[in-house]
Amino acid sequence: MIDNPQISAVLANVKARERELDKEAGQLRSRIEDLTAHLGEPDAENENLAHHPQAPPCHPPT
């Protein structure tokens, strides 16, 4: 380690911030993966509807 206490303190702060940023980056990657997975859901639903069309809802006469 470095003998200068001021430099050691700055280095410790930089390392702590780096750990925080790594954690945030991991959380962002996870969120991006979740959102990316959801992007395919409308396509899958459209594909499902194309193969299994539903009758329009029946409304009673008014």
Which tags fit this structure?
62 residues, 1 helix, mainly alpha
Tell me about this structure:
- This protein has 62 residues and is mainly α.
- It has one helix and no strands.
- It is rod-shaped, with a radius of gyration of 27 Å.
- It starts with a helix and ends in an 11-residue tail after the last helix.
How is this fold's topology laid out?
Layout: H1 5-51
Quaternary state, please?
Answer: single chain
The percent of residues in helical segments reads: over 70%
Mean pLDDT, to the nearest integer, reads: 86
Number of DSSP strands? 0
Beta content comes to under 5%
Uncertain segments of ≥5 residues (pLDDT<50)? none
Main sheet overview? none
Span between termini: 84 Å
From N to C, what is the helix and strand string? H
Could you say which overall geometry the principal axes of the C-alpha atoms support? rod-shaped
Structural class: mainly alpha
Helical element count? 1
The Cα radius of gyration reads 27 Å
